[in-house]
Amino acid sequence: MLEVFCSRIWIIGEKLSKIITSFYTEGQYEAGTEEAIKTGRVIDKNLKNRLLTPYNKQFILKWIIEGYRLYKKEGLEQTEEMKQTLEDIQSDNDSLSCFIKDELKEYNPIKYELVGAKKTLSDVYDRYANYEINNYHTPEDHIISFKKFVKCVRAKGFHIERKWSINNNRKELFITDWCLNEEIKTRKEIKTEESEGGGGGTDDKQ
């Protein structure tokens, strides 16, 4: 446990103070606040004071010594374990990234076909809100607004355009290059369904 924790701190370095939401101690895990437990994203405002308790000071000293030992042994090059640990931290602290990984798929028209009308960004946001509630037990009033959701999705490199929505008969925002998993199928899947009499034809896109 100590080695894993040290590897985490080593990777994060100077950015540590900006992203810590909890603190490991020997034999126990201290959550930041009740709100942090619910949302997984609230900074523990009492972290500094808790780190300065005698017990935690002793632990930090052990942590520094162990970190130096690992530095002398492995140098500054990241190991596969450290890279995986960093990915886990980023994933655990970014529910939107987890949602994208679990619920969305990049749309490649050569490989996939749309099944029905494409979902609007508003539809995707509703799915994200349900994902937050079901997987993170996030209270509804703690879920980011649609406006912030759009901003965050754009910041992650997704292309968003306003196009005509067949279902709503008006222009809506769409993620142009990604879809919800159930919106697309491979050509092989569609052919298999058609051969089995399951339909699987595609409607007009957007």
What do these coordinates show?
Helix 1 packs across helix 5 (54-74) and helix 1 (2-12) crosses helix 6. This protein has helices spanning 2-12, 16-19, 34-39, 47-51, 54-74, 80-92, 95-103, 121-136, 146-155, 187-195, and strands spanning 22-25, 28-31, 104-106, 112-114, 160-165, 170-175, 178-180, 184-186. The strands form four sheets. Strands 1-2 form a two-stranded antiparallel sheet. Strands 3-7 form a two-stranded antiparallel sheet. Helices cover 50% and strands 16% of the residues. Residues 1-5, 10-43 and 199-205 have low confidence and may be disordered. It has 206 residues and is an alpha+beta fold. The termini are far apart.
Mean pLDDT: 74
DSSP, total strands: 8
Q: Report the total helices.
A: 10
Poorly predicted parts? 1-5, 10-43, 199-205
The general outline is elongated
Query: Widest sheet: strand order?
Result: 1-2
What's the helical proportion of residues? 40-55%
**N-to-C SSE string, H for helix and E for strand:** HHEEHHHHHEEHHEEEEH
Let me know the largest β-sheet: 2 strands, antiparallel
Strand content: 15-25%
Our Rg estimate from Cα atoms comes to 23 Å
SS-derived structural category: alpha+beta
Distance between the termini: 50 Å
Brief digest:
The protein has 206 residues and is α+β, with helices and mostly antiparallel strands.
